[in-house]
Amino acid sequence: MNIREKKREKKMKVNDIVIKMEDEFGRESNMSRGMSYEDYACKWVNDMSKVVIEHTIEVDNDANMSIQLHKIKQSEFHYRIKGARIFNWFHANYPLWIEVSKGFKDAKTGKSSYTKIEGGPLWLDILEHNISPEFILQSYNKSVDNLTNHDEIAIDLDNLVAYFNHTKKTYDNGHGQSKFFRYAFEAMTIIKLAKGYNKVTTCPYTGKETHYIPQHYKFSSFGRKYYKGNVRLQSYNEMVRHASLGECYALDINASVYAYYRDLAKSKGIDQDIIDILDMIVEEKDNTREALADTLTNTIATREEKIKIVKKALTAIGFGARIDNDYGITKDIIFDKDDRKAFLSHWIVKDLSVFYQTLSASIRASLDLKENADLKDQLKAMPSLVTHVILNHKLSDKYDPEKPTTEFDRFKMPSVMAYMYQQEETLIMQTVMNALKQYGNETLLWVHDGIYVKKQPDMQLINHVLKDLSTLTFSCQEVNEWSRHHKDDELKVYAYA
C-alpha cells in the first residue's frame, strides 16, 4: 500500500476515531480534563481544522503552507492520555497536514520562521464538508479588518464548482502532487467565500446566476492595486482564476518588462549590439523560452511546466536577480543545481545579464540622490517587485524598506528600475482600462500586467490609445478552456449550503 492510499484510509468519521481511541487507550474513564473521546474527535475535525485553515489559507509559490505550530498546540490537545500527548496521537493517526520543514527562531534577530506544510486529503475533505461559508467569510473579514476599499468580483460559481470537483478527483485518484491540493484548496475557499458573502444577481434573459466575492485592496505608491486578505483571487493559480471568472478575455502586456527596458535603453543611447538580445526576447519570446527550456534536462516536469519555469527565471533576471552565483532567486525557481548552472551559463541568459548591467549603470549615472529625495522616499515604501512577481506577493527577507540605498548612499538599482517599470506599467493599464470602460467593457480583475474583461476587447482601440503613450503592445486570449472542458465532465455539479 502506497502513501497516498494510506492517507485516504485516514478519512474516517468521528465514530471511527472514537473506536480507535478505545482500542488504544481503553475506557473513557481513563480520560482527563472531563473530555470524552468524542469531544476530542469532534474538536480535531471541527475546531482544530478551523484553526489550521485560518492560519494557513495562503500558500506560497511551491504550494506549501506555513503555520505556527506552538499556537496551534495551545489547546486541549496539549494534554496526555496514558502518557501519550494527545496532539501527537491525532497528528500521527489523522493528519491534517504533512510537515515539509520545521520552523525555527533566529537567535540573533529574534525572528521566527513558520513550519512549512502540505495539506492532505483529510484536510481538503473537512474544508469541503465541515467548514461553513460563514466561517470562511468571517476569517476573510478578520484578515482585512483595517481596510475599507474593496471590489466585488463576479464569480461563475457553477464553473468553479465543476473545476473543483475535477481537480479534487484528480488529486484523490493518486495524481497527488501538492499543486493539485493547492488548486482544489484555492477553488473551495472562493466557493465558500462566495456562498458566505451571499450576493447574487440573475440575468433576466438567460436566468444564469452570478455570485460575487469581496476583495479588499491597497494602492502602492506607484498606483498598482494589491488585493489583501487570506483569500486573494489576484494571487491564486491562473487556472483557478479562469475557472472563477468563467468565459471572458485576458489582456496581457507582451514581454512587458523587457519591452520597456528596450525602449529605455534606446532612449539612453545604448549600443544596438547590446540591445539585440532584447529584440530577440520580445519579438521571438516563444523560441527563446523553448531554447532555454532545453537546459532543464534533470527537472521532472512537462514541457509546458518547464516553459513556465523559464518565464519566471527570466522575469527574476529582468528585475535584478544575479546569475554569477548559486545563491540568487533563481535557486528558488530552478531547483536542480546542474539545470540551474546550465540555464545561467546559456548565452541568452549571459547576454541578458550584460544588457541589464549596462542599462542599470546608465540609469545609475543619471541619478543624484540629493536631487531625487522624493524618489528615495517612494522607494522606501515600495516592496521588491522580484518577490511580487516570483514569490507569490510576499516581501523578501533580504529586502529592507528602510534602506533603498546602500551604505554609500547610492540607489539600489533593482529597486529603482522596478519602480520605473511599475510606474510605466500602471499608467498603461489604467489607460487601457479607462478606454475599455468608456465602451462598456468593464474590468473583471486586474492582475498587475494583465486584466480580465467580459467582452472581447477592441484591439484597434487599445493600439490607438497607446499610440502616443508607449510602444508596449497587448495580446488577447479567450478564456474558456475550462468552460469547454467541464461541459463534458461527468462529475456532478452541486451547490454548497
Question: What would your notes on this structure say?
Answer:
Helix content is 49%, strand content 12%. The chain has helices at 3-9, 14-25, 37-56, 69-72, 86-93, 121-129, 133-143, 157-172, 178-197, 238-245, 256-267, 272-283, 285-293, 303-318, 337-344, 347-365, 373-380, 385-390, 413-438, 459-466, 481-486; strands spanning 65-67, 80-81, 84-85, 97-101, 115-119, 150-155, 200-202, 209-219, 225-227, 248-253, 443-447, 450-453, 474-479. α7 packs across α9 (178-197), α8 runs antiparallel to α10 and α13 (285-293) crosses α14. With 497 residues, it is α+β, with helices and mostly antiparallel strands. The strands form four sheets. Strands 6, 7, 8 and 9 form a four-stranded antiparallel beta sheet that branches. A four-stranded antiparallel beta sheet has the order 11-12-10-13. The chain starts with a helix and ends in an 11-residue tail after the last helix. The protein is built from 21 helices and 13 strands. Residues 1-11, 381-409 and 488-497 have low confidence and may be disordered. It has three domains: 3-119, no CATH class; 132-247 and 481-486, no CATH class; 253-479, no CATH class.
